[in-house]
Design brief:
7 strands, alpha/beta, 5-stranded parallel beta sheet, 39% helix, two-stranded antiparallel sheet
Length: 305
């Protein structure tokens, strides 16, 4: 009997790996929820218990008012705005700057494991994670450092392809099972919750143009980095679907407001911010735009898009 159980478990893991692999390769997408029907409603209005999980794009570093110095968490980040608009009965925000998927299970300074904020009474969970697993910070530093070698070319892309393959594309693929594990854990700890995966906003011009020296990347590295972010967001969308979670596209609503735009028009600050925010992160208007995208998805009901 034990042997049969182990064999069934292995078969289940193989099936899940096949689904994720097919989804990420673009060959097929099987969106199958393992959560009960109650998780599809998620509650609405002032009766919900809402928990926000995530990294710095969730926490809102530098945006007034900072309410947690260790995690650089603002009370005007998008979870706080969503909670206020939905008049949540309870709201717990454990997002933390620098968080990776590992911090779902591991403490980060004074911030406990993020998954510990969930329980069976949780109605709504938003999750924005994966950017630091792929390496947002080191990627920006590397591309800025290499730009001087070939300002009109793509020295950063060439650097990430010296092994004969695109290391950033591989990093996105390797992050997929980590995000998958997070979502399975969320469902296990909050089995009745509506789970919403939040994608990343448009950081660089969607048309592939650049703005050196405001953003100090080489000209042909801009489209490469844009495509890398789009690949990350596609992965998050697919893994959300495999896990029966909603996906919120924050990229399209922020196109035209990237870090290359003039201060009055940008919602993402460049490496030298002119508004209170961390470099290469949303400012208060950007967080409000992401909140709007989340609220639109919640109002639209359950489903994948």
């Amino acid at each position: 009997m034990a042997h049969d159980t182990r064999r069934a478990d292995r078969a289940g893991h193989r099936r899940r790996a096949a689904v994720l692999g097919a989804a990420l390769s673009g060959c097929a997408l099987v969106a199958a929820s393992t959560t009960p029907a109650a998780a599809r409603t998620g509650g609405s209005g002032r009766d919900i218990a809402y928990v926000a999980l995530g990294d710095s794009y969730t926490s809102g570093p530098g945006i007034p008012r900072q309410v947690d110095v260790d995690c650089a968490r603002s009370d005007h980040n998008y979870p706080s705005l969503v909670a206020a608009r939905r008049r949540a009965a309870s709201f717990t925000d454990v997002s933390c700057s620098g968080a990776t998927t590992a911090q779902m299970w591991q403490a980060q300074g004074g911030n406990g494991p993020q998954l510990d904020a969930l329980d069976r009474d949780t109605d709504l969970v938003t999750v924005q994670i994966g950017g630091n697993d792929v390496g947002f910070g080191p990627i920006i530093a590397t591309c800025a450092r290499l730009a001087a070698q070939d300002p009109a070319g793509n020295p950063c892309e060439r650097s990430y392809r010296t092994s004969g393959y695109d290391e950033l594309a591989v990093a996105v693929v390797r992050t997929a099972p980590k995000v998958d594990r997070v979502l399975r854990a969320v469902h296990a700890r909050a089995p009745h919750a509506r789970v919403v995966v939040v994608g990343y906003p448009d950081l660089l011009p969607d048309d592939g143009s650049g703005c050196f020296p405001q953003v100090p990347f080489a000209a042909r590295d801009f489209p490469y980095l844009r495509d890398t972010e789009k690949r990350l967001n596609l992965m998050l969308r697919l893994v959300a679907a495999v896990n029966g979670a909603d996906y919120v596209d924050t990229y399209r609503p922020t196109v035209g407001h990237d870090m290359c735009k003039a201060p009055a028009d940008r919602w993402i600050e460049p490496l030298r911010p002119s508004s209170p925010a961390a470099p290469a992160h949303p400012n208060a208007v950007g967080e409000a735009a992401m909140a709007g995208a989340v609220l639109d998805r919640l109002d639209a009901g359950h489903g994948h898009r």
